[in-house]
Amino acid sequence: MKRVLRTKRPHIEYPCTWTYKLFGRDRDAIRRAVGQIAAGRQYTLEPSRSSRNERYHCMNLDLRVLSDEDRCGLSDALGAHADILLVL
Q1: Given pLDDT bands bounded at 50, 70 and 90, which one contains residue 9?
Q2: Whose CA is closest to 64, among 81, 42, 79?
Q3: Domain chopping of the chain, boundaries
């Protein structure tokens, strides 16, 4: 079966609210990380799911982004933080 790679990016109108899914081991540490990275911005951060043994937690971050560069820069900053294991 032949795979088709899509090179066309979706059209996103900015500014808009973007949802990031953040995964980590400690919800309080994720909250502190978001507070550092999103300082001065309005956002909501709510718990989502946890792994069965509660070792990993997911939180949903809703944040207003101003441009594609802003959205990607925030994603990179969140992903680079030691307390955030994965950003989707």
Answers
A1: confident
A2: 42
A3: 16-87
Can you tell me the distance from the alpha carbon of 11 to that of 46, in angstroms, rounded to the nearest whole number? 27
| CB burial of residue 76 (10 Å; 0-12, 13-18, 19+) | exposed
- Please state which of the four CATH numbers 3.40.50.2000, 3.30.390.50, 3.30.70.260, 3.30.1950.10 is assigned to the domain occupying 16-87: 3.30.70.260
pTM more than 0.90: no
pLDDT tens digits for range 31-44? 999 999 999 999 99
